[in-house]
Structure to design on (450 residues):
């Protein structure tokens, strides 16, 4: 295809999807590390300290990958999306700068202390360092989410005479209903990812009969966290996010559900294939009136279909949006019974003997990454054809002097580089998993030997 806009979108979508595999893991692990360090501090347990130390090392590897893969996206605002950057830089430039200055440097500084300063800091200050790392990690997520929320639900800005956007109220932007809901929904999804990875590694160790204490502690931490976070992703955060979409982006809601006609008592599509050419959903399996209740809290509420809106405002890829949304919802729903059963077995003391459940946990770790990617695809595809919803169309945000061939060439370069980085990351993580938790940091441990 010779359309530069297509390649600009593809390149940014590819690079940001690969990049976000790592922050979602680190943000989730940050909270779980605080829990482990807190238990170690309260009980004086060398085993809990050792388990926490292992996950700090995994955090460090993922953090490094996040930094390396995040840098190219900053440049793409200037190379691929120059018109967007020129028009909105007075708004999004503020939050992106705050993320770098206040959050990224906080996170990276305290990560160094957490990795190398345990002996000098002692248990209490090392725990405080873990808390600071958690705050920096989630604060970074806050500023990024605020940037995206502005693109979804632009508030707190003013438009100058030359058409450029500037911040009128930073508070309104940082604490808009969309920012708050999207942030907590996203962070709970990150905890799901971190907890699933933790339980997968622990299940693998248990199946192999290795690192018994570290495996038990990781299961005791990861399984309850995964269940609680999975529930919170669905309700209330996911439910409130859905109502915001229904109120402010009704076209996106209609496309997510493959709904072409308006009407009351709208059914919720469980399964089906959107047929855009014939304006219908093929082979549907639905729950009657449930979409009306989810969207508006009333089983009789009218839910507008795509036919109510001008076709040039429809999302540009309805089929991909529909399937992404349903993959996210389907996987997110399955996470709850899986971890509920795992917690029941853990509570009854049978999880470590239940090999089928351990295998299920060990093999389940990719699915939160898939669900989160599908969720972000739903959000971004649902916003189309707008870069800033209702204000700046995607077609008007690209760089007119960057041609399709140039973007394709650099995309292939990114693909090759990221493949190498991905293999390297997996190899390093596999080595850490093979070594397992260590008894003490390299310079000795304030908790004693494990």
């Amino acid at each position: 295809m010779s359309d530069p806009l297509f390649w600009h979108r593809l390149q940014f979508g590819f690079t940001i999807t690969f990049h976000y595999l790592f922050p979602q893991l680190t943000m989730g692990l940050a909270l779980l590390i605080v829990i482990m360090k807190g238990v170690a501090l309260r009980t004086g347990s060398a085993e809990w300290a050792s388990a926490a130390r292992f996950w700090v090392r995994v955090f460090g590897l993922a953090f490094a990958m996040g930094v390396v893969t995040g840098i190219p996206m900053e440049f793409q605002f200037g190379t691929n999306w120059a018109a967007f950057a020129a028009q909105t830089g007075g708004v999004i430039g503020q939050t992106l700068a705050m993320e770098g200055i206040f959050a990224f440097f906080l996170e990276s500084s305290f990560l160094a202390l957490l990795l190398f300063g345990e002996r000098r800091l002692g248990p209490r200050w090392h725990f405080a360092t873990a808390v600071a790392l958690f705050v920096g990690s989630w604060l970074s997520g806050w500023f990024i989410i605020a940037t995206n929320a502005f693109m979804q639900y632009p508030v707190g800005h003013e438009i100058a005479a030359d058409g450029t956007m500037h911040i009128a109220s930073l508070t309104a932007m940082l604490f808009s209903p969309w920012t708050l809901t999207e942030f907590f929904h996203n962070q709970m999804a990150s905890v799901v990812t971190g907890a699933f990875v933790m339980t997968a590694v622990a299940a693998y160790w248990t199946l192999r009969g290795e690192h018994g204490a570290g495996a038990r502690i990781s299961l005791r931490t990861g399984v309850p966290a995964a269940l609680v976070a999975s529930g919170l992703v669905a309700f209330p955060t996911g439910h409130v996010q859905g109502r915001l979409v229904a109120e402010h982006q009704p076209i996106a809601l209609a496309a997510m559900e493959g709904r072409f006609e308006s009407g009351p008592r709208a059914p919720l599509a469980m399964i089906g294939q959107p047929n855009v050419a014939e304006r219908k959903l093929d082979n549907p399996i639905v729950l009657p009136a449930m979409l009306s209740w989810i969207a508006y809290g009333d089983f009789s509420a009218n839910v507008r279909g795509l036919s109510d809106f001008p076709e040039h405002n429809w999302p540009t890829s309805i089929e991909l949006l529909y399937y992404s949304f349903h993959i996210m919802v389907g996987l997110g729903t399955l996470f709850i019974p899986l971890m509920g059963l795992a917690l029941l077995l853990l509570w009854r003391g049978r999880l470590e003997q239940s090999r089928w459940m351990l295998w299920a946990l060990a093999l389940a770790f990719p699915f939160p990454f898939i669900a989160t990617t599908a969720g972000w695809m739903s959000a971004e595809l649902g916003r189309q054809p707008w870069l800033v919803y209702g204000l700046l169309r995607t077609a008007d945000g690209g760089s007119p002097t960057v041609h399709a061939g140039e973007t394709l060439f650099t995309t292939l370069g990114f693909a090759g580089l990221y493949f190498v980085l991905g293999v390297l990351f997996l190899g390093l993580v596999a080595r850490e998993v093979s070594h397992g938790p260590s008894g003490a940091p390299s310079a000795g441990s304030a908790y004693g030997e494990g």
